[in-house]
Each structure stands twice: as structure tokens, then as C-alpha cells.
Amino acid sequence: MAEIALIVLTVVLISSFGYVVITSMMQNILLTGTAGFIGSNFVPYFLEKYPEYNLINLDLLTYAGNIENLKECESNPRYKFIKGDICNRELVEFIFNEYDINGVIHFAAEISCR
Ligand SMILES: NC(=O)c1ccc[n+]([C@@H]2O[C@H](COP(=O)([O-])OP(=O)(O)OC[C@H]3O[C@@H](n4cnc5c(N)ncnc54)[C@H](O)[C@@H]3O)[C@@H](O)[C@H]2O)c1
Questions:
Q1: Ligand 1, closest atom to CA 65?
Q2: Taken in order 101, 107, 110, 114, is the CA torsion positive or negative?
Q3: Pocket around ligand 1: residues whose beta carbon is below 6 Å from it?
Q4: DSSP symbols for 43-109
Q5: Strand bridging mode 79-83 / 103-106
Q6: What integer pLDDT is reported at residue 104 of this predicted model?
Q7: Probe residue for ligand 1, chosen from 34, 58, 110, 113 as the CB with the greatest number of ligand atoms within 8 Å
Q8: pLDDT < 50 regions, the chain
Q9: Is the dihedral of CA 42, 78, 23, 14 positive or negative?
Q10: Which of 15, 24, 42, 14 shows the shortest CA–CA distance to 106?
Q11: Residue 25 pLDDT
Q12: What pLDDT sits at residue 111?
């Protein structure tokens, strides 16, 4: 009985260690303007292709942005949407601190091709 308990404990410890290693390898990317044309195509592609990244999306939802464009990503635990302005320094600093951002991919823009 004690041997079985020891084996179970060992398996639990090994899998917990694996979980810690995997989560600590995750990278957090801040994406801006993702509700627009390029961003809303980029996000689902990137989420599927690169499972080691969490995507934090900052978009003001101007005339050019439509949150419906990202509906398919809403249930993904590695996707987070924040409505806000990239010119809001406090907000951007908050996001960097809160989500431990490792990199930025910038799509936000005032102009639109359409
Ligand atoms: N679409 C093209 O063919 C093309 C070609 C070359 C370069 N680009 C460049 O790529 C970038 C993205 O292009 P797009 O076509 O996806 O643009 P888009 O106009 O479709 O989308 C821009 C997004 O930025 C958001 N936004 C605007 N101001 C913001 C702000 N202050 N804070 C946060 N979000 C804000 C909008 O809500 C929108 O979702 C732009 O810089 C554009 O100049 C686009």
C-alpha cells in the first residue's frame, strides 16, 4: 500500500514539475489593433501555430476595428482582449506589469485601406 502511495506521489510531483516548467516557458505578447483587418487574421493563425504564446490584445475599437472579427478566439485561454488606447500610457504600463509582456506586435493605426 505504501509503495502505491509513493508511486502516486512521485507521478503527481513529476507532472506538477512539468506543468511549472511548461507555464514558465510561456511568452506573453502584447498585440495592438487586432480588431482590424490584418490583426484579426493574424491572431487566430498565431494562436494555433504557436501554443507557447499568450496574446494580450489592445484595441480602441475605432471605426476600423470590429470585435466580432475575433469572436472565434474568445474561448481560447491564451487570448485576452482589452479595449483601450495605445496612447494611454498608464494603461500600457499596467498591461506590461500585469501580464509580464515579453514582446509587442503593433497593428494599431488611424488609417484604413477600406
Ligand atoms: N491593410 C493593408 O493592406 C496594409 C498594408 C501595409 C501596411 N499596413 C499597416 O498595417 C497596420 C494594420 O493595418 P490594418 O489594415 O489591419 O488596419 P485597420 O485600419 O484595419 O485596423 C487598425 C486597428 O487599430 C485600432 N486602433 C486605431 N487606433 C487605435 C489606438 N489609438 N489604440 C488602440 N487601437 C487602435 C482600430 O480599432 C483597428 O482595429 C497599419 O499600420 C497599416 O498602415 C496595412
A1: 39
A2: negative
A3: 32-33, 35-39, 58-62, 64-65, 85-87, 107-113
A4: HHHHHHH-TTEEEEEEE---TT--GGGGGGGTT-TTEEEEE--TT-HHHHHHHHHHHT--EEEE---
A5: unpaired
A6: 98
A7: 113
A8: 19
A9: negative
A10: 42
A11: 83
A12: 73
pLDDT, tens digit (0-9, with 9 covering 90-100), for 20-49 = 555 568 999 999 999 999 999 999 999 999
pLDDT of residue 114: 56
Structural domains of the chain in order of their starting residue, each with its CATH number: 25-106 (3.40.50.720)
Give the three cell numbers for residue 91.
494603461
pLDDT of residue 23: 54
DSSP classification of residue 36: S
Cell 494603461 sits on residue: 91
- Which atom of ligand 1 approaches the CA of 61 most closely? 37
Pick the closest to residue 47 from 24, 78, 74, 3 (CA basis).
78
Residue that has been written with the C-alpha cell 504564446 in this structure: 53
